[in-house]
Amino acid sequence: MDIGQRIKLAREHQGLSMNALSKKSGAAQSAISEIESGKRQPTFEVLEKIIYGLGLTLAEFFADNQVVEPLPSDIRQLIDLAQQLTPHQREILLAAAKEWAGLNPKPKGE
Fold first, then answer.
1. What is the pLDDT along the chain (110 residues), one digit of tens a residue?
2. I need a labelling partner for 63 at 20 to 30 A (CA). Which of 40, 47, 106, 107 fits?
3. Distances, alpha carbon 36 to alpha carbons 51, 69, 80, in Å
4. Could you tell me if 51 and 32 are in contact, meaning their C-beta atoms sit under 8 angstroms apart?
5. How far apart are CA 37 and CA 63, in angstroms?
6. Is 39:7 a contact under the CB 8 Å cutoff?
């Protein structure tokens, strides 16, 4: 499946019109139309805008499963914040999150 088809599939799966995607991404509606129809290939910058407008990462967009749900905005914010942390800080955050989720219960007696 080519890039234009992937964009169209993701856009339609989310119930977005080309106009709505244009507003969310900042990419021109005409560009989105031409890319989806295969009349032109996007530059990396335009592709990145469109993918971000779909609420996806590049990895999610190019994943083998073609129907990808965007991450909820609060999860996306957590990821963005975590990327700014040092490896040690991320390790601490991960341990705390596992504990909060009950995945790393404290040993009895603590």
1. 789 999 999 999 889 999 999 999 999 999 999 999 999 999 999 999 999 999 888 888 888 765 556 667 788 788 878 888 899 999 999 889 888 888 765 555 55
2. 40
3. 13, 19, 29
4. no
5. 21
6. no
